[in-house]
Amino acid sequence: MSIEHDTIVGEVRALHEDLARWLGTPDAGDGLAAFTGQQHPDFTMVTLDGAVVPFAALAAGLAGAGNSTPGLTIDITDLDVLHRSAECAVVRFREVHHRPEGPVERLTTAVLLPDPQARNGLRWRAVHETAAAG
Q1: For 31-40, how does the pLDDT look when each residue is reduced to its tens digit (9 = 90+)?
Q2: Taking the CA of residue 47 as centre, how many other CA atoms within 13 Å lie in the half-sphere pointing to its CB?
């Protein structure tokens, strides 16, 4: 049985709400733990500049970034589930980071794996970000 479409969409939106709360508010509460807790132990991310960042480096970089972008919100649009099965889901979406200096957009492709102990039953295994035109 494949991972439900609505579950995937819910997780993508929830993770980015966690990230925006951590980076964009002075009282982020458990925003960082909520964000990093959703990552698979073998998580990697390809950044906009092409660097491959493992989970430990991502978590360390975010640890000191609480409220580094006051007022940040992140909209998720153009979400397309490219593949879903019982073993994984692959999704592509547009992230629009609304910052005080103006929006920044990126296209993101992500691989999510089922994990019954994770929120929405999914963990993030890999993310690849690409700069997108506004």
Answers
A1: 799 999 999 9
A2: 9
DSSP states along 49-99 = TS-EEEHHHHHHHHHT-TTSSTT-EEEEEEEEEEEE-SS-EEEEEEEEEEE
Q: How many helices (H) and strands (E) does the chain have?
A: 3, 6
Over its C-alpha atoms, the chain yields an Rg (Å, rounded) of: 14
Tens of pLDDT, residues 59-89: 999 998 989 999 999 999 999 999 999 999 9
Q: Are 59 and 36 in contact (CB under 8 A)?
A: yes
The answer to whether 71 touches 20, Cβ cutoff 8 Å, is no
Strands 89-99 and 73-84, sheet pairing: antiparallel
Q: Which domains does the chain have, with CATH numbers?
A: 5-131 (3.10.450.50)
Could you report the per-residue pLDDT of 16-26, keeping only the tens digit for each? 999 999 999 98
Tell me which DSSP letter residue 120 carries.
G
In terms of Cα–Cα distance, which of 122, 102, 126, 130 is closest to 13? 122
